[in-house]
Amino acid sequence: MTDTTLPRSDSGSDRNLEPSAAATAAEPHKRSSAAHSSSGASERERIVRIYAGKLFDPQTLQLLPQRVVTVSPETGLVLGVEPYKDEELRGVDFSAGNEDVVDLRAATVLPGFVDVHVHMFLHPYAEVSWEDQLTKESLVERTVRATVHAKRTLMAGYTTVRDDALTCLAFAGI
Question: Residue 47: what pLDDT?
Answer without folding.
Answer: 93
